[in-house]
Here is the input.
Amino acid sequence: MFVTLSNKIKSNKMGDPYILMLVALAVLAVVDLVVGVSNDAVNFLNSAIGSKAISVRNIMIIASIGVFMGAITSSGMMEVARKGIFNPNMFMFQDIMFIFMAVMITDILLLDIFNSLGMPTSTTVSIVFELLGAAVCISLLKISANDSESFNDLWSYINHETATKIIFGILLSVVVAFSVGAIVQFFSRLIYSFNFEKRATYINALFGGFAITAITYFIIIKGMKGTPFYKDVKHLIEGNTIAIIAGSFAAWSLISQLLIKVFKINILKLIIGVGTFSLAMAFSGNDLVNFVGVPIAAWNSYQAWEVSGLAADAFSMGVLAKKVPSNVWLLLIAGGIMVVTLWTSSKAQNVIKTGIDLSRQGEGHEKFQPNPLSRVVVRVAMGLNSVISYIIPKPTLAFVNSKFEKPVISLPKDKTYELPAFDLIRASVNLIVAGILISIATSMKLPLSTTYVTFMVAMGTSLADRAWGRESAVYRVAGVLNVIGGWFLTAITAFLAAALVAYLISWDMVMIPILLAIVAILIGRNTLIHRKKTKEVKKQQFIERADLITINGVIEESADHISEVATRVNKLYTNVVNDLANHDLNKLRKTDKHVEKLNDEIDGLKDGVFYFIKSLDETSVQASKFYIEVLGYLQDVAQSISYISRASYKHVNNNHKNLKKGQLKDLKSIDNQLSSLLVKINEIFKNRTFDDLDNVLIEKQALLVDVSNSIEKQVARIRTDETSPKNTTLYFSVLLETKDLIGALMSLLQTYEEFYLNTKQVK
Here is the structure.
């Protein structure tokens, strides 16, 4: 395709606009592969990495092979991009090119925006709804230009039966994947419990036989239907389904028993390896069309139009309704790009972490905040659980509960991070169920969302495995609801955006280079934003500890926090004073966001107190108490600067009068003194020169005196000068909160000095 395009460009000397569009589509396909795979392709890695059954390197190798194999089997799915959503015979070549161009531009823009927002999305949902939106737009334009047609004729343009089937399949995948995952995991846990190592070998062998049989049938046999060489083995497969399944089950069960007894192989690890391969293969076979299906269909359209000799707006695209075999080499190139992206994408770790955090067995830092809906869902679930517990006989309930009792694993405190997020049983179920569901959909030509299936299966197994306890349920449910909400937003946005882009392109083709320029700018911007966020994440300090902490470690840890907070509060306070003096609403808004971020980070530190104390190398009440007090004072400081920032922003946003020159002068003087104090605090804790704390404590008294004097000055102004009540309220609020801020800082320093001196004496 690329070689032919190159020759076409030379022969046409760039005069054919459709050649240029094909070149743009080819480039967009590569970009879409990179951007899209970075967003959701790593979903099939979650189970293997979360269970720590196999090394990350080996997991990536297995997944890469699966992607290549899936690329070969994806040819059948190309029909969705060609005729699944619309009736091609109703469109001219020019219309088709407009639709395809709009879809690819929109897809990259949409994925870029969602990536920038940190929202998970589905490439399958986006491409389906983009095709639908662009096709509907072009159809309406054609109908409006034809006096003999009305709005009711839209359904002759849109393949609404197939489109409805596809959309229903996508939405149904959420419910089916969650339900099937939960049911299979529940019965798997009843069979295995959490002490699966103690199960009889024949149980493991039968489980291995079932798992590998399901994988081999649906991935290998069903997947072959989309390949050119299926006809060579068609007579051996069709009509022999039951015999193939029964024979495979018997064979794989015997092989599993042999591997367990003779070679001492953990069959669950083998299942996870094979399952990762199968899910990677299913992903590639199902999702490759999302990235290259449209450009390939555009190339096929161009080839048919070129030999016709007709004008672009006169050549009907009924040819797209015919089956056209895809180039295997082209698919493999696309698969290669996907593999390279998997290995090199820095966004992969974030995607993996989100999925693992929502499904992990233990407690930890929760990424999502609860919302009213998540609270209602949890309360309803607790009510239903109470009813079920009341109905089920107590002996049965006791038996079931015994299967879900988690074993106590004795590990040194500094090794607790080595514990997997979930065990091998759940990882196996995740992979098997997701692989089978996606494979069935692929064989039926239904573009089931890989993201939907893998995510919802993992959530269903987590629920069935009782990973969502009273401490974490409201956060986990909120996370699931946020992700699902993002999926619905993807569908709506994809439809409307593609329709808009298609309209702009049909209005004037000059919009194509403009839109392509926007794509390039946004991708560049997204890259810069991602790099910035990556650097910020590295700087963030979470107290969900993985290493052993000594008392000296407590001092070091808290010193880093104090140094960081002092630096940021210094900058934030100065920004508020300056922005208030300039009456700059935009800068005050930005400062308020930074203040909110500081508060959130300190709240995160407080949320991690449990893990911090648990990680201490000894039961030191003094060290624990000290650390809690430090975080409390830091929170007081953050709340004071937050109130100052919020009050200032509200004042300017309400268009109240600016502060008087005398008031601003006093505030600037206080800011200079406070800044000097905070700089010294930062240097002391950064350089660990704690013996200098006395000097800082002495200086604070002069600053407090200045703040009190400023309050007295304002009282005098009220009696003598013309002043605004709103200004007075703001000014007093800023001064009083500044006083509280200084007080919290000094209490913090005194507490730190006392603990430091006591620690030195003990040594």
Summary: Confidence is low (pLDDT under 50) at residues 411-417, 538-548. The CA atoms of residues 218 and 436 lie 6 Å apart. Residues 2-407+429-538 form one domain.
